[in-house]
């Protein structure tokens, strides 16, 4: 099979590899809100304790993997169980929805959708929908003037961590869902550059630094910056394990001008990095199961991007979707 057929064909805001991240075709400048204003208490989230453990049988039946699928002509959000069964369509808009993220209580999904801003420019913005597809609405009434992507819910469900692109720079950002306040975390002299901002269960935020070679952590109010890991290769699409000790990320290499992306596992306490996939095309977009024993991801190994799972050593590969159209953006419920 020609290598060209093995690349994932995902357009717009669907950033599957490092090269796609750097080539995102959205060129709007910032306007309206001041996205570089320091984060205030309205954007913070209080630390919460772990929820009471549910019975194993309940977890098995309740878990869902949300993902985007083009099986109906445009990218809509679907959900299925971890075996790839009980498929349910969540959204059915005329435009594309992508990058679903579950709230901590699994009752809502934040998704990325295109939206016209005040200048009639199309930007990617955040749309909130109940897990059954009802009560869909924009996360804030005012359209963004800087594209938003990769939402992650705070433990309480009151805020989102985001990646915001203004000009040619990506910023670690926040969105308070109660007030609509949107902004980039501050470095004291401007926005905090970085990608893949992800909330931890304790309410802190982990993200990849602007060089793509560091894993960093801040408190939800932007204080307490700490570098957790410094590596030699470019990292993107981070996914923190439920217990907070391991981080999945994607690294892209090039052969004959074509990208090949693989998934890696970083143990934060030791800095040990293990390559989990070795496919010659695109393995990307990893997400953890709630107990940390399985990883769902997007792979082009069948010729078109589909959803697969594996264990944390890269073994026990299982294909969950079997279509001839692209499936991407898996997000495992909590």
Q: Which percent range fits the helix content?
A: under 10%
Overall number of domains:
1
What ranges have pLDDT less than 50 throughout 5 or more consecutive residues? 1-61
Q: Predict the CATH topology.
A: Neuraminidase
- How would you sum up the major sheet? 4 strands, antiparallel
Order of helices and strands: HHEEEEEEEEEEEEEEEEEEEEEEEE
Strand content: 35-45%
Given helix and strand content, the structural type is: mainly beta
Quick check: average pLDDT? 84
Separate helix tally? 2
Shape: globular
Beginning-to-end CA distance, first to last residue? 37 Å
How does CATH name the architecture? 6 Propeller
Strand order of the largest sheet: 3-2-1-24
The top level CATH class name: Mainly Beta
The CATH homologous superfamily is called TolB, C-terminal domain
Q: Would you count the extended β strands for me? A: 24
Q: What Rg, in angstroms, do the CA atoms define?
A: 18 Å
Describe the structure.
- Mean pLDDT is 84; it is low at 1-61.
- This protein is 4% helix and 40% strand.
- It has two helices and 24 strands.
- The strands form six sheets. A four-stranded antiparallel β-sheet has the order 3-2-1-24, with no helix packed on it. A four-stranded antiparallel β-sheet has the order 4-5-6-7, with no helix packed on it. The protein has a four-stranded antiparallel β-sheet with strand order 8-9-10-11, with no helix packed on it.
- It has one domain (3-40, 67-332): 6 Propeller (Neuraminidase), CATH 2.120.10.
- With 334 residues, it is mainly beta.
């Amino acid at each position: 099979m020609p290598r060209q057929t093995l690349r994932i064909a995902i357009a717009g805001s669907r950033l599957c590899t490092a090269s796609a991240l750097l080539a995102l075709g959205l060129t709007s400048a910032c306007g309206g809100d001041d996205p570089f204003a320091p984060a205030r208490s309205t954007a913070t989230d209080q630390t919460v304790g772990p929820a009471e453990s549910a019975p194993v049988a309940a977890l098995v039946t309740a878990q869902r993997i949300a993902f985007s699928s083009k099986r109906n002509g445009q990218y809509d959000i679907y959900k299925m169980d971890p075996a790839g069964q009980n498929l349910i369509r969540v959204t059915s808009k005329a435009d594309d929805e992508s990058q679903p993220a579950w709230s901590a209580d699994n009752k809502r999904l934040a998704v990325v959708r295109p939206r016209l801003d005040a200048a009639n420019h199309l930007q990617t913005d955040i749309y909130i929908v109940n897990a059954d597809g009802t009560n869909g609405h924009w996360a804030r009434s005012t359209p963004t003037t800087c594209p938003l992507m990769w939402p992650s819910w705070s433990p309480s469900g009151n805020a989102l961590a985001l990646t915001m692109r203004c000009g040619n720079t990506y910023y670690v950002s926040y969105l308070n869902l109660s007030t609509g306040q949107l902004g980039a975390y501050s470095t004291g002299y401007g926005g905090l550059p970085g990608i893949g901002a992800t909330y931890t269960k304790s309410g802190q935020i982990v993200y990849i630094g602007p060089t793509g070679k560091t894993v960093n952590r801040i408190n939800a109010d932007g204080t307490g910056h700490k570098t957790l890991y410094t590596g030699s290769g470019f990292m993107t699409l981070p996914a923190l394990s439920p217990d907070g000790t391991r981080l999945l990320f994607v690294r892209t290499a090039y052969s004959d001008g074509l990208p090949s992306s693989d998934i890696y596992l970083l143990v934060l306490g030791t800095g040990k990095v293990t390559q989990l996939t070795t496919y010659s095309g695109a393995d990307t977009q990893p997400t953890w199961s709630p107990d940390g024993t399985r990883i769902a991801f997007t792979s082009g190994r069948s010729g078109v991007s589909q959803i697969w799972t594996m264990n944390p050593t890269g073994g026990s590969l299982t294909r969950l979707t079997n279509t001839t159209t692209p499936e991407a953006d898996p997000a495992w419920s909590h």
